[in-house]
User: Fold this.
Amino acid sequence: MEPILQSLRYCLIASCQALPDEPLHGAHIMARMAKAAEEGGASAIRANGADDVRAIKASVSIPVIGIIKREYAGSDVYITPTLKEVEELLEAGADMIAFDATGRSRPGGARLEDLIQLMKQAGVASMADVSTLDEAVHAASLGVSCVSTTLSGYTDYSPQLEGPDLKLVEEAAARLSIPLIAEGRIHEPYQVEEALKLGAHAVVVGGAISRPQQITRRFSNAARKAAQSLRA
Assistant:
C-alpha cells in the first residue's frame, strides 16, 4: 500500500470544491475552506482544478487529491477525462489524482489504461471513481492505487439513492485487495461511521462540509416543514 493511503486509514477526506456558478468559487476561497477543513480534522483534501490544487497545497500540510471537471462533447465522462487533465494535475503538484473509471466512453477515444500508466510513471497515486462493483473490480485489475464509490448514482445504470451507496461500499471493500474509499452523498457523521464499519479505508465528505448553500438548504427545509405543521 502506498504511503499516502497508509496515512489515510480510517480518516476523513474533505472535498473542497465550488463550481463557477457557485458563491464560493475561486482558488483563494477554496484554499481557506481547505485550511478550515484541516483544522477540523480532515486528513486530506479533494480539490477540483489545477489552480485550486496549487492554492490549497500552499495553505495546508495534508495531501491534496486533485481532479479536473471538464466537459467534452459526445462524452458523459467529466472527472479528469483525458491525459491532458492528468498532465495539468501533475504539473500542479497533486499528491493523488482521481478520475472517472466507469465503463463509459471517454473523450477522443482516450483509454483508461493510458491515464493510469501516466500516473504510475509520474509516481503519483491514483483514485478510480466508479459507480458499480464491476467497475470497481475492473479498475483494480488495471493497477490503480484505490477505488472510490464517488459515481454511484451519477450514472444511469447505478442505484439512484438519496444517501450513500453503502451496499457498494460493503461489497467492493470485501471484494478488492486495494483500499476502498467511500464517497457520494454522505451528509451525516453516522454515515461516516457506517462506511468505515462496512470496510471503507477512508471516507470523502464534500457538500456537507464545503457547500454552505446545501447545508443551509437542509436547515431551511426543516424550518419550512415545521412552519407548515404549526400553521395547520
Notes: The mean pLDDT is 96. DSSP finds ten helices and eight strands in the chain.
